[in-house]
Amino acid sequence: MELDTGLPVVGMVGGGQLARMTHQAGIAMGLSLRVLAVDESDSAARVARHVTLGHHTDPQALRQFAEQCDVVTFDHEHVPNVLVAALSRDGHRVLPSAAALVYAQDKLRMRQRLAELGFPVPAWRTVTGLADLTDHAGDTGWPVVLKTARGGYDGRGVWIAHNAREAAGLLKPGAAPDAPTMLAEAHVEIVRELACVVARTPSGQVEAWPVVETVQDRGICVEVIAPAPGLDPGRAREARELAVALATQLDVVGVMAVELFDTGGSLLVNELAMRPHNSGHWTIEGSRTSQFEQHLRAVLDYPLGDTDTTAPWTVMANVLGGSLGGGSTRERMRHLYAQDPAVRVHWYGKAARPGRKLGHVTVSGAELGPTRDRARRAARILSSGPSLGDRGPDADRADVSQPHDSQPHGSQPHGSQPHGSQPHEVPERTR
Ligand code: AIR
To answer: What's the whole-model pTM score?
Structure first.
């Protein structure tokens, strides 16, 4: 407990954007999140007051960090499960527990447990060698999805083999590890991907947000639409009930995201995450309680907040690094705010790398089409700079081609290729 405020100390292992946004939510709750970060330039380390530098795989760093905290929680799944268990054995309060977290860390364990509990999952099998992959294809047909059980994220650790030759290339005979660390899954024909984010307290209260549609590009989430458009109310109820039941049966504490495949006729569980999740970023503006606040409430065993929406539609679009375009980040921000001042922007303070999540934007509205267009356009402007088509809803009102102040950064006309001579891909670092 912080002696001067009388409030508990929450520590998060990992200093990424999820910790950064959790810290932001914690401020209003009187908290000042402790962060165990690898580097002082990590997203949350740039903004939190109490940062410990150390690696999430170092037992001593974890122990010393936990000693400063009343409760320890996570910004990613990469802390070895045995170390999470060791912290609890040493008497530290760690949430979610190692026993629950393993199902978000190890896809094989997750598939086995969910199948035992009777939750719907794609056909799968453990892969210890090429024969398992080809046998699986014998049952489900090609293509077959090959996944690493541990450590994959944002499209990494997932491969698709369309035929035996490709499978052999992925898994050379004799090259498979001794312990089963891979799994094969049926390549499910899906209509779209959905997600249901829930939070659960140690006392067993569970709240779910509306089911959302997630749009992926090469394995990376690029857009989230809340609620999922055109989802049959019965199916939406089924997804929420499934997520609530999963959180309860796996004894999860904190936020959990359940990624789902919508096959048209049924729902299948794809993946689990036990932390705030990209598919819940929309809740900062689009729900009465954000997933970050809810995660803190849950790990502190406070009663959970209301998950009702604040608008008929909310669309979140990620700003990814890597696309070449003109203009500094400041110019892009000026352009975006001039075009569409109601867009909510969240930068994570990260250096740009291709495909890296650098920030996101959120737009709420009464009609899905324009709301989605605005979110997409805003993300495009921030990641690649404005293009000729980027005339926002207020374009006639705000003359974005003539910024009103004469700062040198803003003096370029927008909408053509004026910045081509000085491409600037790396966003300015923000504090
Ligand atoms: N994260 C964790 N699992 C999935 C995601 N997106 C968040 C966490 C983590 C950060 O992404 O906040 O710390 C790592 O981002 P990056 O770009 O450094 O890989």
So the answer is: 0.88
